[in-house]
Each structure stands twice: as C-alpha cells, then as structure tokens.
C-alpha cells in the first residue's frame, strides 16, 4: 500500500539528526490514518506537533497552477506559463 511506503519514509526521515530542531511536512499527513501514524512516530521520540499551517486556496487558482506547469523534456527544468515562462 502506498501509505505504508510514505509512512516508512516519514519515519526514516524523522529519525535523522538534522530534524532535531524542527521540521516542516508538506502534503503529509493526508488521511486520519497517516495522522495517527505520525502521532505515534513522534510520541516514540518524545515529540509532538506544536504548530500547523493550513492554506485555503480557491479551486480556480489551483487549476491554474496545475494546468500551467511545464517541464523541459531534455533537462527536466520546471516552468509555468505565467509565472516562469
């Protein structure tokens, strides 16, 4: 299951010393099960979540961002038709 892989990656990453001072997760957790898993991983390290940021974005803006993405087939560089043509 994809979530098992993602959870394992998160657990491994949070075990590294460079996150001792804090970390930011973008797009994780996405489900209640992942949130519960994350709580367990953090509890096992004597840590917990201290802050959460939630951005509310209009659907039209999301569609524009996604549909405007481009990448160079040669070098893989990422572009956007309006923000980084």
Question: Layout of helices and strands, plus pairs?
Answer:
Blueprint: H1 2-14, H2 32-44, H3 59-67, E1 69-71, E2 78-80
Antiparallel strand pairs: 1-2
Helix pairs in contact: 1-2
What does this structure look like?
This protein has 85 residues and is mainly alpha-helical. 41% of the residues lie in helices and 7% in strands. The chain is built from 3 helices and 2 strands. It has helices at 2-14, 32-44, 59-67; strands at residues 69-71, 78-80. Strands 1-2 form a two-stranded antiparallel sheet. Helix 1 packs parallel to helix 2 (32-44). It is elongated and about 45 Å long. The termini are far apart.
Name the descriptors.
two-stranded antiparallel ribbon; elongated; 85 residues; mainly alpha
- The separation of the N and C termini measures 37 Å
Q: Biggest β-sheet, characterized?
A: 2 strands, antiparallel
Overall radius of gyration: 17 Å
Low-confidence stretches: none
Shape by Cα distribution: elongated
Helix content: 40-55%
Strand content: 5-15%
Structural class: mainly alpha
Strand order of the largest sheet: 1-2
pLDDT averaged over residues: 90
Question: Helix and strand string, N-terminal first?
Answer: HHHEE
Tally of helical runs: 3
């Amino acid at each position: 299951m994809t979530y098992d892989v993602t959870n394992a990656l998160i657990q491994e990453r949070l075990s590294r010393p460079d996150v001792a001072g804090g970390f930011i997760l973008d797009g994780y957790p996405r489900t209640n099960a992942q949130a519960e898993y994350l709580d367990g991983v953090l509890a096992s390290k004597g840590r917990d979540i201290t802050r959460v940021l939630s951005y509310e974005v209009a659907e039209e803006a999301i569609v524009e961002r996604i549909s405007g993405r481009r990448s160079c087939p040669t070098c893989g560089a990422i572009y956007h038709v309006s923000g980084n043509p």
